Amino acid sequence: MDLRKRVARWKRDGRKTAVVPTMGALHEGHLSLVDCALQHADRVVATIFLNPTQFAEGEDLDTYPGSLDTDLAMLRKRKAHLAFVPAVSEMYPAAFSTSVSVKGPAAARLEDRFRPHFFTGVATVVTKLLNQAQCDYAIFGEKDYQQLMTVTQMAQDLDIPTRIIGAETIRETDGLAMSSRNAYLSQEERDLAPRIHETLRQAADSLRDGQAVPGIQRRARASLRKAGFKVDYVEARNAVTLAKPENPAAEPLRLLAAAWLGQTRLIDNIAV
Predict the structure, then answer these.
(1) Strands 17-22 and 137-141
(2) How far apart are CA 259 and CA 244, in angstroms?
(3) In 121-150, which positions are buried (b, 16+ CB within 10 angstroms) versus exposed (e)?
């Protein structure tokens, strides 16, 4: 029985349904999305698909960590009701020729500035997964905040009836946001990695004190560079549109950062 038929049967039985899209290499952050889904829905589908269209040449598609057997065991333990694990040939058959182009939050000059291919790949695969599942809810983590805002806007613009729900970032005890790519860090890099979250917290305090945004961003970038990071960005943005704030004191703000430690790219964000 294919995914859509299974979900349709649940709906006929009066069950609320939710989908949790993942790329595998599951950790507690992913599992918290399943927990969130179970709070909203009676039946939960987790998808595992390492989406090639959101990786550029030279990125870690071929080395992305993870074990399907381990992932499935974790989902069973967390009480997900169904795992959908499509092959690349199923998602992108030979004649596939369509993509979803996104602007708005996807063109905020954050992740898209450094990974210009990324959001077209994300938007296309998420549209396919939401259409295949046709669930009432879809759960995405706030750690990938620009992705969350992009998917939310896309679902609204394309009249996709699935409600997008953002779930809070799950962190290690030292503040590092959980990520599959944390497995790439050496021990020395792992010890240093929580500085991103610490720097964002300090910047948020400065914003709440009414200090000027440009100076806060400049000092945060300098602090990370001094600590040994190669910084892509540290930016304060409108929390909904991701536009640069025009009136920081009157807007909801989000601080977002991306930086490299060695060969590992880390991203994080916090509300202000």
Answers:
(1) parallel
(2) 20
(3) bbbbbbbbbbebbbbbbbbbbbbbbbbbbb
Burial category of 77 from C-beta neighbours within 10 Å (exposed 0-12, middle 13-18, buried 19 and up): exposed
| 98: nearest Cα among 53, 61, 57 | 53
Backbone φ and ψ of 116, nearest 5°: -65, -20
> Residue by residue, what is the 3-state secondary structure of 105-122?
HHHCCCHHHHCCCHHHHH
For residue 180, pLDDT over 70 is answered with yes
Q: Which of 88, 95, 94, 143 is nearest to 121 (CA)?
A: 88
Instruction: Look at residue 1 and tell me whether its pLDDT is greater than 80.
Output: no
In angstroms, rounded to a whole number, what is the distance separating the alpha carbons of residues 54 and 82?
Answer: 24
Closest listed residue to residue 22, CA positions, set 108, 147, 161, 177 = 147
Q: Is residue 27 flagged as an active site residue? A: no
> Strand order of the sheet with strand 137-141?
82-84, 43-48, 17-22, 137-141, 163-167
Q: What six digits make up the tokens of 258? A: 């991306």
How far is the C-alpha of 240 from the C-alpha of 152, rounded, in Å?
10
Q: How far, in Å, are 13, 25, 30, 60, 245 from residue 7 at the CA level?
A: 10, 25, 21, 33, 41
Catalytic residue among 27, 30, 81, 197: 30
Q: What is the phi/psi pair of residue 158, to 5°?
A: -95, 10
Contact yes or no for 236/216 (Cβ under 8 A): yes
pLDDT in tens, 127-148: 999 999 999 999 999 999 999 9
Average pLDDT over residues 162-181: 98
Instruction: Give the residue from 209, 146, 264, 238 showing the smallest Cα distance to 219.
Output: 209
CA–CA distance, 89 with 68 (Å, rounded to integer): 18
